[in-house]
Task: inverse folding
């Protein structure tokens, strides 16, 4: 296969008998589709369970699995096997999706003449709730960047403040241009998904951080500067999403926040904290740039959970 990257032998040390076609499929995911090791590991674990089921069902031989015998009836048996194991809905859905991808690979490679999973549909799991930071965690994060002195520290302070102040997507921060900021009326013009513009108000402390960076930090970042971009890296080019994420990760670590923090979590925090504070759903929808209010409603579940926790903690009979 073109660009094939063979998987290390130790990748399969936990699987007693890995079928050669499963091995080929994993190598295809690594070499031709370029998936990460973690993603391939998830496929490998799912297909290890399939391997165990196949051998228990006795449709294999010393040369490997006879995949033509793994027909729709056997697929149904395997799905029932997953049900009997009591997997969570999301885990069951992922294992079924792995099976479908593998069986499609077998047909494309000519190993089987039919697609045994053609009538199989993975159940839709409930969409996981977005992860938000607590107000204390946000305070810790912002306190960590308060004493910014160097150009990069001033930039980091401005980006963290802006992510939380405006509920911006990370791409909306990295794509922000100098002329998108109105320092006079404390707003920024954001170009969101589908090239839709919105005007987002920014609270005073965040705008002050942005002004400090623009006046004192940005002019010192890089010799050959991108004149349009607001946020620059050390070379003077527009900061990348990965660069921003890595800086946020370091800031969170320095602030003593132990769980994994992503820029998008500040957007989630912005929305849930506004709703907890009494903002209307429509208002939050406009600020986030959601086309459909149903997308914003996911945050009402977060606020409901917050109310429940407060109730359980405060009510004498809870």
Result:
């Amino acid at each position: 296969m073109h660009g094939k990257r063979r998987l290390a032998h130790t990748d399969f040390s936990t699987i007693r008998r890995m079928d050669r076609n499963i091995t080929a499929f994993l190598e295809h995911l690594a070499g031709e589709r370029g998936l990460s090791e973690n993603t391939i590991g998830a496929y490998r674990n799912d297909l290890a369970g399939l391997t165990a089921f196949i051998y228990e069902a006795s449709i294999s031989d010393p040369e490997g699995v006879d995949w033509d015998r793994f027909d729709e009836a056997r697929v149904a048996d395997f799905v029932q096997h997953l049900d009997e194991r009591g997997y969570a809905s999301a885990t069951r859905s992922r294992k079924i999706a792995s099976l479908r991808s593998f069986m499609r690979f077998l047909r494309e490679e000519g190993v089987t003449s039919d697609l045994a999973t053609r009538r199989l549909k993975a159940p839709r799991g409930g969409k996981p709730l977005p992860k938000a930071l607590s107000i204390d965690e946000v305070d810790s994060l912002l306190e960590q960047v308060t004493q910014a002195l160097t150009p990069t520290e001033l930039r980091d302070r401005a980006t963290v403040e802006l992510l939380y102040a405006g509920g911006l997507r990370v791409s909306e921060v990295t794509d922000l241009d100098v002329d998108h900021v109105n320092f006079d009326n404390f707003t920024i013009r954001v170009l969101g998904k589908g090239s839709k513009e919105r005007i987002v108000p920014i609270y005073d402390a965040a705008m002050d951080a942005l002004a400090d960076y623009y006046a004192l930090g940005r002019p010192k970042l890089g010799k050959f500067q991108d004149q349009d971009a607001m946020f620059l890296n050390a070379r003077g080019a527009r900061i990348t999403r990965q660069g921003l994420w890595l800086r946020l990760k370091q800031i969170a670590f320095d602030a003593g926040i132990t769980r994994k923090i992503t820029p998008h979590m500040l957007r989630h925090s912005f929305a849930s904290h506004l709703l907890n504070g009494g903002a209307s759903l429509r208002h939050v929808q406009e600020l986030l740039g959601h086309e459909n209010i149903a997308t914003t409603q996911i945050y009402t579940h977060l606020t409901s959970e917050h109310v429940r926790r407060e109730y359980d903690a405060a009510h004498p009979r809870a």
About this structure: Strands lie at 60-61, 64-65, 181-182, 187-191, 197-201. Confidence is low (pLDDT under 50) at residues 1-17. The radius of gyration is 25 Å. The first strand starts at residue 60 and ends at 61.
